[in-house]
Structure to design on (232 residues):
């Protein structure tokens, strides 16, 4: 028959307990030695008896092994602490960003008149004032752009009128030279080309004047003393 299983519990008899301690202590020290030799492991073993006597084994300097253990546990603890702090920080930042996104989405919905049931009278008044200020800025910018474009059209109109005046004077000079029979034969072609160019300028001027009236209703059309652009 095999040996019965021994229950692991405190041995009440002092003599038996001391004998068991000696046997198992020696067995533990032997196992530690074998492990260090077979596996080249760095081992430090410390045992205190009930009477306070210390027994130890180390295949290296036991103090150096203990210092190495303290350093390793400290690094592991610091690494875990740093990871936990980083995780907490990113969780908090993520929560803040989600809240900001939600607030911006709610604000955008309110600006288009949605989700207003959750607002009180004071908040609705604030939203109304905000929209009115925004509309005022939009109108101001629109009028500014219209004025700038109208000014550009007026400058273009003046330039075209100046060009037409120059061309009319050129045509009059050519006609006078023809009457005096001083213009060469090619002068007729130059005269015809100038007339065509003048006609195109007049067409552009008329189109610009039409745009100045129809495209910008919010502003009154510019008042000018229009010069006659017809050929003399």
């Amino acid at each position: 028959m095999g040996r019965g299983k021994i229950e692991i519990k405190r041995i009440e008899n002092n003599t038996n307990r001391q004998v068991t301690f000696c046997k198992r202590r020696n067995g533990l020290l032997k196992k530690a030695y074998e492990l260090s030799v077979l596996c080249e492991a760095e081992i430090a073993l410390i045992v205190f008896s009930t009477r306070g006597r210390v027994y130890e084994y180390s295949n290296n300097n036991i103090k150096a092994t203990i210092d190495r253990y303290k350093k390793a546990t400290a690094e592991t603890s610091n690494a875990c602490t740093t990871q936990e702090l980083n995780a907490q920080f990113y969780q908090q930042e993520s929560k803040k960003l989600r809240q900001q996104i939600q607030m911006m989405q709610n604000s955008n919905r309110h600006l288009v008149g949605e989700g207003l049931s959750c607002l009180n009278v004071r908040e609705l008044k604030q939203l109304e004032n905000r929209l009115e200020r925004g509309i005022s800025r939009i109108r101001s910018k629109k009028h500014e752009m219209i004025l700038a474009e109208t000014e550009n059209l007026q400058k273009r109109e003046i330039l075209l009128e100046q060009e037409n005046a120059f061309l009319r004077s050129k045509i009059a000079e050519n006609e006078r030279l023809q009457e005096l029979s001083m213009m060469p034969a090619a002068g007729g072609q130059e005269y015809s080309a100038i007339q065509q160019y003048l006609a195109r300028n007049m067409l552009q001027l008329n189109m610009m004047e039409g745009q100045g009236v129809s495209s910008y209703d919010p502003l009154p059309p510019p008042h000018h003393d229009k010069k006659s652009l017809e050929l003399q």
User: Anything to note?
Assistant: Strands lie at 44-48, 54-58. Helices lie at 14-39, 62-111, 121-179, 187-214. Confidence is low (pLDDT under 50) at residues 213-232. Residues 14-60 form a domain with the SRF-like fold (CATH 3.40.1810.10).
